Amino acid sequence: MKLNGCLVSALGDGLTKETDKWTRQSENRKALEVRIIRSAEIVFAEKGYSGSSMESIAVTAEISKQNLIYYFPSKEVLYKRVLKEILDIWIERLTFLETQGDTPDEIIRGYVSEKLKLSRLYPNASKVFAHEIISGAPLMKEYLVSHLKPQFDRDVKLVKSWVKKGLIEKVDPEHLFFTIWAATQTYADFSIQMEILLGKKSLADRDFKRAEKAVTEFVMRAIGAQKNN
After folding, report:
1. Spatial distance between the Cα atoms of 168 and 165, rounded to a whole number of angstroms
2. pTM for the whole thing?
3. For residue range 24-37, what is the model confidence (pLDDT) as tens digits?
4. DSSP-assigned letter for residue 201
5. How many domains, in total, are found in the chain?
């Protein structure tokens, strides 16, 4: 019995070690995949899709081209992954229906804050998305229709309900969102313009806090939400 117990213990230790090994390999794979995506964002943001190459992305990621192709077999596959990732992040975090708060004021403040946070954290991905849209969304149009449009319609419906209840002034819901997006994404897509005009080498946290205050107050005044606080 003691021998059997030792055997079971040894087998258990072996399985644990093997599990730990696979876990580490999985974590390393995920870390490298993230590094590749971040590197691709930099290259696509600087050179656009047509001006980018797998070679330049591999150099930026500090891996071999062969290793890059193992994870992403083509430039188009990698490009779509970059676009899909930033769009999924926006969809997950930027929906009025799931934003913390009960009043229009609380919801919009949280929405603007999160949108600017994403512009600060993912500036290159935002630039890549802007390139795609300016080009007519040749590779992402269907995904926008199937994923972004349904959320957009739900959020527009919510804003219309606020207007109907008298919680905010009568506004054009669709263009309210377009205005918020433009006012927040510009801090990523046109950051160099901001830096030049503000006399800064790069935008700091305090600049984004200043932007958040200005954009939020502008939207609040425009829809009259503050009068209901």
Report:
1. 8
2. 0.80
3. 667 888 999 999 99
4. S
5. 2
